[in-house]
Amino acid sequence: MGKKGSKPMTWEAARRIQSAVDSGRAVKADEGFKARAMSAAARNSKK
Questions:
Q1: Which of 8, 11, 24, 38 has the highest Cβ tally under 10 A?
Q2: Quick check: pTM over 0.70?
Q3: Cβ pair 40, 8 in contact under 8 A
Q4: Count of CB atoms within 10 A of residue 17's CB?
């Protein structure tokens, strides 16, 4: 589970992360971060 008080990853949040990484706005993020975001969104959407 995530940090206390954090919200579960949603598809919308995962898309924002992908967009930020692809455009270069997310300096410290990488392809692995994008994959983890999408995986978390998929996992959370099944609940």
A1: 38
A2: no
A3: yes
A4: 20
Whose CA is closest to 20, among 11, 10, 30?
30
* Residue 25 contacts residue 41 (beta carbons within 8 Å): no
Please report, for the chain, the start and end positions of each structural domain, with discontinuous segments joined by +.
Answer: 11-45
Burial-class residue 9 by CB neighbours within 10 Å (0-12, 13-18, 19+): buried
Structure tokens at 12: 């919308």
Contact 29, 37 (CB under 8 A): no
